[in-house]
Amino acid sequence: MQNQVVLINDAIREASKFLHRDYFELENLQSSARSLRVFVDKAKTRVTENLQKSLSKYYKTIIFDSPELDLSALDFTGSVALVDALDGSCNFERAIPFFALVVTILTTKQGKISAEKVAVNFPILGDTYYAEQGKGTWLERHSFNFGGGTIRLRVSVNSKLEQSLVSCNYQQLELAQKISTNIRIFESYAYQIALLISGKSDIAILTNKPMNHGLDLLVREAGGVSYSKNNFFIASNHQIQENLKKALF
């Protein structure tokens, strides 16, 4: 049987093909806020429908992320696909390329939920990040500037907290400022993690949510570490983890 990660990656890329056209159309709609919102909502609905159709070939249960989602309240057996159809939709709305489709395959063992596979696709950047338990974190590039190829990813080896580059969203800015003045805000949790697992940033601070099961897998398989506290999900390399905890809490 074909590798499941390959099938997931293919399904995501197929589901998001039309977003290339929509993305360039959005550049011509920036003068109308209402038109933008309607356009983006339609695009997200179409991505959701595409992913539902493609992933249902391989998984009986597909769950789409929402603010109300509580995985602990769900009763599922076997593998479940947890999907964010359009992370960074505010960037997509402004024709900024930091938005992604995220698919995590979850399993339960002895009542504990864990991520078994995860794939993150940035349609406009042409990048797909993926990980599988025990098999590392990888980047596949399919862009105009690269003919394609696969690269194994590692987190940075920076050991100095004061020299760390921190990524967060506006909600976590106050917390990030306790660590460093070197802060980047992207409004896409997927892009934050992509930078971290590529060694381009050193710390990522996110809101704690169900999709973080897959993000944790990406981080761990890239040699990093993450933990949750006070509704925050914080990921970094091992070298700065202890000093990071002391600085934050």
Structure description:
This protein is of the alpha+beta class. The chain folds into two domains: 4-152, Fructose-1,6-Bisphosphatase, subunit A, domain 1 (Fructose-1,6-Bisphosphatase, Chain A, domain 1), CATH 3.30.540; 161-248, 3-Layer(aba) Sandwich (D-Maltodextrin-Binding Protein, domain 2), CATH 3.40.190. Helix content is 32%, strand content 28%. The protein has eight helices and twelve strands. It has helices at residues 4-16, 19-26, 33-55, 89-93, 173-176, 189-197, 212-221, 241-248; strands at residues 61-64, 80-87, 100-109, 112-122, 127-132, 137-141, 150-152, 166-168, 183-185, 203-207, 224-229, 232-237. The chain has a seven-stranded mixed beta sheet with strand order 1-2-3-4-5-6-7, with helices on both faces. A hairpin with an 8-residue loop joins strand 6 (137-141) and strand 7 (150-152). The longest helix has 23 residues, at 33-55. The termini are far apart. The relative contact order is 0.13. The model has no long low-confidence stretch (mean pLDDT 90).
Blueprint (SSEs and pairs):
Elements: H1 4-16, H2 19-26, H3 33-55, E1 61-64, E2 80-87, H4 89-93, E3 100-109, E4 112-122, E5 127-132, E6 137-141, E7 150-152, E8 166-168, H5 173-176, E9 183-185, H6 189-197, E10 203-207, H7 212-221, E11 224-229, E12 232-237, H8 241-248
Parallel strand pairs: 1-2, 8-9, 8-10
Antiparallel strand pairs: 2-3, 3-4, 4-5, 5-6, 6-7, 10-12, 11-12
